[in-house]
Design brief:
Length: about 300
């Protein structure tokens, strides 16, 4: 965080504290539970550690850029949390996504429950995740911190875009972002996914279009990827062993443009349902990989 952001954060916090003291208002929620990993990432990004989280082990495995203290209580499954344990934590706020609607009434009996995570269902996930990060900051009276986080994210993405612009035309090929599920199927991420919005933000192009009403993420037979014959494949790793074998032995795969040197780039998987932190990390990692590949081919 730069000096200007830090000064803004400290000044804003002092103003909030003074205003609360004058008005005699109640302190914001402090014992917060999240039943969603993306919302936990959002909390941690503004310096708030939840007292409980659904499946802490899974969060640590998937959201590797966020540090979750061992003190956070594991509440079990995202959609079947341990209600007795949740009640024992005595939370003053529970965060859920729209997908938790069926649990909402039960959760409200334990503590006030609020919904975020609508960014995942948006055509512009990163943009909406920014709005929700700021909203969460306001709820928790951490708005100056949220603003600083968003400013830093924009600066990081801006630097990544500048690196890509400097290596043109080596970085201007359309990109196909895919995660292989097995030797025959892949998840492909379109323009309205978090990955897709990051491509646009970085000045890059998505090679996957599909029909106008196509979902942000589609599961397809991998042969469908061949329709983007002029694209560079961003292959999210790790790969299942069967996929690695297929890529080495399949005549169909070898006939695709991706088999050409420098046309398939392996990139560690960043959670596609993450928010600002995940999107920023993806942007930086992608820019580094594309610039490195362009230089090697020059």
């Amino acid at each position: 965080m730069n000096r200007r952001s830090m000064l803004r954060l400290v000044t804003g916090a002092c103003v909030v504290a003074a205003g609360r003291a004058r008005a005699g208002t109640r302190a914001p929620p402090r014992r917060i539970v999240s039943l969603d990993w993306g919302l936990a990432e959002m909390l941690l990004s503004i310096g708030v550690v939840p007292v409980g989280l659904a499946n802490t082990t899974g969060f640590r495995s998937n959201f590797t850029t966020s540090v979750l203290p061992m003190s956070v209580v594991d509440l079990g499954l995202k959609f079947q949390p341990n209600m007795e344990l949740l009640l024992a934590l005595k939370p003053d706020l529970i965060l859920v996504t729209p997908a938790h609607a069926a649990l909402r009434a039960s959760l409200e009996r334990i503590a006030p429950t609020r919904t975020l995570g609508r960014y995942r269902y948006s055509a512009a996930p990163y943009t909406v995740a920014r709005e929700e990060t700021l909203q969460l900051g306001r709820w928790l009276e951490r708005e100056p911190v949220a603003v600083a986080v968003l400013d830093d994210a924009q600066q990081t993405i801006g630097r990544a875009r500048a690196r890509l612009a400097a290596c043109l035309p080596g970085c201007d090929r359309p990109l196909l972002v895919a995660q292989f599920l097995d030797e025959t199927h892949a998840r492909v991420f379109g323009p309205h996914s978090m990955y897709g919005e990051m491509l646009t933000t970085l000045g890059l192009r998505s090679a996957w279009r599909g029909p106008a009403n196509a979902p942000a993420v589609a599961t397809v037979g991998y042969e469908a990827l061949g329709s983007a014959h002029d694209a560079t494949l961003i292959c999210l790793t790790p790969l299942p062993a069967a996929v690695e074998s297929m890529m080495k032995t399949s005549p169909l795969w070898r006939a695709m443009g991706f088999a050409s040197p420098g046309r398939t780039i392996a990139l560690p998987l960043v959670p596609p349902d993450g928010g600002v932190v995940s999107a920023t990390h993806f942007a930086g990692s992608l820019a580094d990989a594309l610039v490195k590949t362009a230089r090697e081919r020059a």
